[in-house]
Structure formats: C-alpha cells, structure tokens
Amino acid sequence: MNRFETHEVFNQAPPFGDLNLFRCDPALVEAVAREGADWAAAWLDGLGARLGRAEVLDLARVANEFAPRLVNFDRNGHRIDEIEFHPAWHGLMTMLIENGAHSLPWEAPRTGSQVARGAAYLLFGQVENGSQCPVTMTYASVPALRQNPAVAARWLPKILSREYDPRSLPVEQKRGALIGMGMTEKQGGTDVRANTTRAVRLDPGAAARLGEEGADAWRIVGHKWFFSAPQCDAHLVLAQTDEGSSAGLSCFFVPRFLPDGSRNAIRVQRLKNKLGNRSNASSEVEFQDALGWMIGRAGRGIPTILEMGSHTRLDCVLGTAGIMRAALCHALHHARARSAFGRALAGQPLMQNVLADLALESEAATAFALRLARCYDQMRDEGADPQQALLARILTPAGKYWLCKRGPAFGAEAMEVLGGNGYVEDGPLARLYREFPVNSIWEGSGNVMCLDVLRAFAKGPETIDALGAELALAGGIDARYDAWCERLLSGLAGADADEFGARRLAELLVVAVQAGLLLRHAPDYVADAFVASRIARDAGGAFGRLPSGIDAAAILARALVE
User: Which of 62, 207, 480, 517 could be bridged to 88 by S-S, CB 3.0 to 4.6 A?
Assistant: First the structure.
C-alpha cells in the first residue's frame, strides 16, 4: 500500500507483466501442437517469456505516446520525406524481425511453419499492434514479388533477412528491407478500379540511364490516399496502364531509392491522424514521375495484389485474436486482485459470467486463427491439399469479418471490467480498444469480406464440400451442432447465399467452424459452454449472457494460468 497524507492506496491490482504469454495460455499451447507446429513449442515458450516482461509490455505504451513524425526537408532544404520514430518503436521492430514474424514460412518451409509464425504473431499482438503493420506487409509481399524474378532476386534476400535495418539507404547497402503497400485513392477507396494513378513505360533515353533495369521500368504519376508505412524500403502500388495489351489496373513495385542511389519521386504529403495504431505511420503520398517495376501480368493488378491481400487478411484474424487475448488477460488479472462490495470481483457470479464469456470468445478466436494458418501450410506444402485451399478461400474473408467485428465489443466489455481504470489512457485497455477497428477496416471492410465469401461459394460446389468436410469432423458429438451445420450447408446449397444476408452467412459459418474445433479439442466444459451460448442462442449478442449450468470457474482457471 502507498500512504498519502489523506488516504492509503489499496485494493488495486498489481501491474500485469512478468509472466510467460505462451505458457499462461493453454488454448494456444494446444492449438500449436495439434495444427502441426509442435516443433516450435520451445521457441514460442521462450518468446512468450520475453514478450511478457514488464519492460517489453511498456514499449507499447511509449511507442504510442510518442507517435512518428514526418520530416519533409533536411536543414539545407533537400526533400527527404523521412519518418522519425521513438526508440521504443525500433525495439519492437527489432524483436519482430529477429523472430521471423515477416519471414518464417518463406525461409525454409516445413510442416507447420505458417502455424508457428501465426502463433508468434498472435503473441506479438498481445504487446503492440502498430509495429505489426509493416511486418505483415513484408511477410505478405513475398508470394506477389516472386511473380517478377528480377525483382525477387534483388530484393528477397534483404526482405527475408532477420536483421532490422531502419536506415534510409538503397537496398544494396542495407542489412534488411521492409515492404509496404498503396492501393486506395481519394475518389475510390475500396473500389480500386476507380483509381486514376497512371503508369507509362519509361522512354528509351531515361531507361538507358538506368542500365539493365531501365528496360522494364515504368513512370508513375498520381496519388495514394492511404499509403501504409511510408518508412518501408519499397511499396506495392496499383496504377492504370493503357498500352494495348497492357491496358488496365496493374501492380508495380516502387522502391524509395532507385538503382542509381537517388531518391524515387514519392512525395509524402502528411501522416494520417488515426483513431488507433498510432505508433505506426500511415500517409498520403503523390507520385511525381516515380519509377516502378511491374509485378505480375499487365492489367491484372488486382489479382496480383490479392496474392498479398490473402496473407494480410490472415494477419487481421491473427492480430485480432491477439488483441482479444491481451484484453482478456488484463481484465481477468484485474478481477482476480480486486474486491467490490465486500467480495472478490472474480468470484461474483455475474462477473464470472462476463469473464467466462470473454474467455470463450478468445479461445474460439485462437483456435480458428491457427486452424486457418494450417490451411495456408497445407495449400503450399509439397503434395498440397486442394481442399485446404478452398477452405482458406472461404475462412479467410469470413474470419476477418466475424472476428474483427467482434473485436470492438470485446474490447469495450474488457474495459468495463476495470471501470474507470480501464477507460483512462494510463492503462492498456483504452489503447487496445482503439486498435480493434483497424483490422476490420484495413484490407477490406465487413461488406467487402462478406461479398468475397459469396464469390468463393459461387465458384462451384467443391467449396461447399470443403466446408462440409471440415464441419463433419465434429459430427455426432452434439446434436445442437449437427442441426446448426445441417441448416448452414443446406442453405448454401439452396437460395440462402444472397447478398442481403451475406453478413449473417459469414457469422454462422465462422461460429460453426469454431464450435467444431472446440467440440473436438477443448475440454468438455469449454465446448459445451460455447455451443450453449453461440449455437443454441444468437452468436452475436452481448457478452455476459451464458446460460445457467456453465462451469465458469473452470473456464476462468483455464483462461489465464498466472
């Protein structure tokens, strides 16, 4: 207790920290093992211990309190467009890069590498989320960049490096490189086909001055309204082309520095003043004859960049599961140490209902996220399973919609557990609450995701078959689950998969997969509580509505092993 002249400070929870974020989460430990990444358990345990240290958790506070700053000109008036970050940001980035959060599945692919990387990303999501943005884009850029062998040969060794190098230099002089992206413009937003940024082939004289690489260069003029992480060494950008067979929206690789060492003509106009994700820089830019190199086929920019987009959407799911886990841990830690009205807060029945409901949502999100990561492993492994690719095609947009949509309500409920202490910026709950919406908005908002689910099902009955096979693995365990799945699949085969009801469809689909995973793998008291509260009732209701008979004490004991 601290003593003031007027009072003593007591009945306050000690600071959350100095615990192993991996070991304290049985649901995550179990998911890593069953989804094929048990070989990574020791590494994840060590990472969880490091990330759970109080001084590491505090880096998130500092990096967000001291936001990045745009410096357009140096003291001599030269245009530099540099972004200055607090050392806390660089500390977070160093940990992400040296642990392969950007590179692990691409370095030496092995069974479970996407799952191992996904589990690490989920752990980092419990610490700080802005620093995950450039790491996600760098990770997701690799499949797209491989469509241009010349760019890949020059850049991938630096992209896959585990050395974080924030210096602004040509890539040949750097120990590691990061990749960002720029798709949307003022007039179109998500409708990127409305983009007006244009690209034309570089004229022969200018191309000759660039040497061998000049033959494939394009000159880009236009703007981007959201240009993510302008400090990155290069960005994937969409621009219109109009040269015969090259007409249409195409994808370009636009580096900050040109092969001759000069700065590319990318002008950062300002940094976005965002609700959350404040540690990271998002910007508006103009391209004033910037040079870029085409990635993928001409006129096929959207499919090309969607190769990147599917992986960024996977990270939206993983990142949301991580923020949910962080919010739950802070709420439960507080409730265990706090008394109210003469009783321990965590032992009061109604509070147990709320906390157990949050714990169920968090465990289901973790199970779903790592199951989805396994789809990405199995669709790229030697002897790839086409059914897993079909499943990923459904579950990625559906999961991004539903988990990310549940995030803000989850964060608000966790904040309410702490009351006023949760609402103020002195603690982490306010920051976590502000982080949730970005995963729902970035890389396609809710409606875009749900329409993508419909497009996936429209491609043929094989997609429904892949979902049915996944759900059938838990068949016969619980009659309520069986009836739910039967209605879902029969509706897909009939006329229920229409645009007006697409959000409801995505919700039902994700809840079915989550229930199946918990029925097969979680303790009975967890699976029964999830089915009783999500399958037998409306899945999207407020938290704290678990029916009677639920073993809330057991759920909470499992939720956070301190």
Answer: 62
